[in-house]
Amino acid sequence: xxxxxxxxxxxxxxxxxxxxxxxxxxxxxxxxxxxxxxxxxxxxxxxxxxxxxxxxxxxxxxxxxxxxxxxxxxxxxxxxxxxxxxxxxxxxxxxxxxxxxxxxxxxxxxxxxxxxxxxxxxxxxxxxxxxxxxxxxxxxxxxxxxxxxxxxxxxxxxxxxxxxxxxxxxxxxxxxxxxxxxxxxxxxxxxxxxxxxxxxxxxxxxxxxxxxxxxxxxxxxxxxxxxxxxxxxxxxxxxxxxxxxxxxxxxxxxxxxxxxxxxxxxxxxxxxxxxxxxxxxxxxxxxxxxxxxxxxxxxxxxxxxxxxxxxxxxxxxxxxxxxxxxxxxxxxxxxxxxxxxxxxxxxxxxxxxxxxxxxxxxxxxxxxxxxxxxxxxxxxxxxxxxxxxxxxxxxxxxxxxxxxxxxxxxxxxxxxxxxxxxxxxxxxxxxxxxxxxxx
Length: 439
What we know:
- The chain has 439 residues and is of the alpha/beta class.
- The chain folds into 4 domains: 5-123, Response regulator (Rossmann fold), CATH 3.40.50.2300; 134-302, Rossmann fold, CATH 3.40.50.300; 306-374, Helicase, Ruva Protein, domain 3 (Orthogonal Bundle), CATH 1.10.8.60; 379-438, Arc Repressor Mutant, subunit A (Orthogonal Bundle), CATH 1.10.10.
- It has helices at residues 13-25, 36-45, 62-72, 87-95, 108-123, 140-152, 169-179, 200-205, 222-225, 241-253, 279-284, 290-296, 313-324, 335-343, 349-363, 371-374, 379-393, 396-414, 419-426, 430-438, and strands at 5-9, 29-33, 50-54, 56-57, 60-61, 78-82, 100-103, 159-162, 187-191, 230-234, 255-256, 265-266, 270-275, 299-302.
- β6, α4 (87-95) and β7 form a beta-alpha-beta unit.
- α13 packs across α15 and α19 crosses α20 (430-438).
- The termini are far apart.
């Protein structure tokens, strides 16, 4: 195989030498440019598999030059080299399309891991892309979402997946992983709201045997388990503030320290996170760190609510019915039933649609499923009544509490009293649901 070729753009001779020696020991060819003029000349004459770009150069700014690089070689992974602590610049670079960043002084362990990840982007064999069969929907919003996923998968920039409960945020995260060069490595998903606060640090970073009472063996944390692959933090808004500090350091330094150990270890993960809550509002309320918010929200991906893409509902109905009736064509929805579902507000989104169909098919005996068979909740009229009550009493807090209680009651009824399924559908922890039911 032909050796990969990397372009190094840096005006400091000792940095260029360090990078050249490290890369050459990895069996990678290098070419160095001490300014942007030389770099532009090389880019027009040669093809590269990776570019290492310093932020500050004698004849210009690396960030300003980044779009020109991507215009000349669109699929070239570009790693930005920043001064230590230049968080804002690093985030800006990844928003502009950089693959990742390195902080000075350069850590050789992080450098090797980053180079290996970047070179996989273009050297990994092309896989069959079948997102349409996984992320269903032919509406414009879903077509745009699949296009963004394919583009995001080529970067290591942290991605924040925003969307209501039940929209399929974990499905989107899994697709980003499958489309990336990390697809053969682990995908680790964790619901942050389901881990007791006192165990979170050990769960995330692991621990050393004997480091605390009950630590009978060494434990591998989620970051180590996802090393080389993707770590998906669902309901990231539920992280306590003390762990947010440690998570921020792990993202910035690309290193973690297991509980009870003195030495740090390098980690190579693609971080994805999600929540159904308004993270920006939590930052405003000082419940979520602003610096961490900016680091995990380098790229924001919005997953649309089902009511925003009603034209996709017939396709989703067919998909779920095929699974539920084992390919038997004797059960189908009437036209009126499909229209009723397209007009329904779906507070639980795609997950609620699946639950409605599963419940209806289980209770249905024969013939077409009618609108009445669906037993849809009239959320719109209920909301209107609640709103009138709130206006008459002039109490926004009571109004919001009333909506929350009614929604929990409705979903609990849909799940036949199953609290675990209800908590999962509502996107909250079981402990949180139990607390709300008591109050």
